Amino acid sequence: MQRNHKESIYDLHLGQNQANYSALTPLSFLERTAAIYPERTAIVYGDIRRTWKQTYERCRAMASSLIAQAIEPGDTVSILAANIPEHFEAHFSVPMCGAVLNSINTRLDAETIAFILQHAETKLFIVDPEFVEVASRALQMIDKPPRVVNIEDPLFSNAPLIGDMTYDQLIANGDSNFEACAVENEWGAISLNYTSGTTGNPKGVVYHHRGAYLNAVSNVVSWSMSGQPVYLWTLPMFHCNGWCFPWTMALTGGINVCLRQVRVDAIFDAIRNEKVDHFCGAPIVLNMMNSADEAIKSGVDHEVKVMTAGAPPPASVIQGMEAMGFDVTHVYGLTETYGPCVVCEWQDEWGDSNADAQAKLKARQGVKAPMLEDLKVVDPVSLEEVPSDGVTIGEIFIRGNLVMKGYLKNPSTTDDAFEGGWFHSGDLAVRHPDGYVEIKDRSKDVIISGGENISSIEIEDVLYRHPLVSEAAVVAKSDPKWGETPCAFINARDVISAEEIIEFCRANMAHFKVPKTIVFGELPKTSTGKVQKYLLREKTRHL
């Protein structure tokens, strides 16, 4: 309930001033940690071991060099890079000079990268040697391309240089004592992230310093991160700025173990050798780890915490990770919410349940994260909250500091997303009696068959229980009788027939939900492990 504010004794000569107010910015985390723990290890990458003091000095030097390259406050600096130290540093050096960081998805094609560089009005483009070819093609499509800074990486050599500057040169020529530009307004932009653009050109999601600060803190609280966490970079830094974990790790003073390629052997090697105790990843990464040979998985004898989000994880995937001794926390969010804004908080009484029941509880999206103002599930037509019965489906609405500023240069879409004072997620969910939210589908992924709404996620969860199913995705297929019927795309571990899959489904779900069509093969995915269902829907037109 809102009440009108009237001036009171608490408003008299009690205003903001430099002594009692400063804008929130995650840049302050790096400054603090470098001052308190200067000799702590901050970065591990191959043979590279850098302290927080060294990392801070490098970021300051780069920020000063960016200013020397005529980068002004509000300019966009884009980066196309793997999870390497330079990408981590850019999360601090770019906003330190007042500019806005745009981290680009490394799996995009040249045309989309060119669109992003033009739409963001990029002034300077930092390019990893692994992506020189696609970056070069993108730059050729732009009338006035930005200046290019080449990253040189000893672990990825022999790549041609496409710009007239290298990252190391800028560091060497910069001032390691540079004083970062003051953040006068915490509502100012800190980063720009583009959505996947599966139905057209991607939208530019703008983050502010306040939201980045608060979500970094929210990560620490919701994951109970303490001591000096050792964090493995399996989650792409370009994805919602790595769910804000570059800033979270600066806050905790932990160790960042950088990983260029997300391979299952590299993940387990890092966990064993560097004593990694935290990492994030989409369910596809967890499923890949579950399916690894026992020889690869052996030797992990310490607690490892896993945070997963993206496509809702099947309970069987969570159960598999827990069986290996990994502690899984399920979160939910969108690019528009800085990554995780909802967390499946553990309840002590859940410990009395068996492993299967615990996994199903953990597979729910959960409750609002510590720094989120409000979360509700509403009827998309009436906008009334649905009952907390675990059955009635509505759309997730979100409100608070963990919501984006809006879409860059797209006022109408921004207004639509914020209609009624809430962010409209487009995700359909139920709310259980205990208040926990569980996604049932994206609004565009619901299958309407014979007038019945069928959740593709529910079918996928059953499919994942089959021992020979490695990956599964279900979409609607047009049907002259029923309107739509479920079509299952499956990546199998071994030879299995469509009839066997259908019989398994009939034994584990209502018959009207059973897929009528089964297609075997690799599933198309985004770089963050989400299955590209729009491509699968296209395929159904030819079946």
Description:
- The protein has 543 residues and is of the alpha/beta class.
- The chain folds into 3 domains: 49-214, 3-Layer(aba) Sandwich (Rossmann fold); 262-443, Rossmann fold, CATH 3.40.50; 446-540, ANL, C-terminal domain (GMP Synthetase, Chain A, domain 3, 2-Layer Sandwich), CATH 3.30.300.30.
- It is 30% helix and 24% strand.
- It contains 18 helices and 26 strands.
- The strands form 5 sheets. A 9-stranded mixed β-sheet has the order 2-1-11-10-12-13-14-15-16, sandwiched between helices. Strands 7-6-5-3-4-8-9-19 form an 8-stranded mixed β-sheet, with helices on both faces.
- Helix 1 (27-36) runs parallel beside helix 9 and helix 7 (209-222) crosses helix 9.
- The longest helix is centred in the first third of the chain and has 17 residues, at 52-68.
- The N and C termini lie far apart (54 Å).
- 50% of the residues are buried.
- One of its GO terms (biological process) is fatty acid metabolic process.
- Keywords: Fatty acid metabolism, Ligase, Lipid metabolism.
- This is Acyl-CoA synthetase.
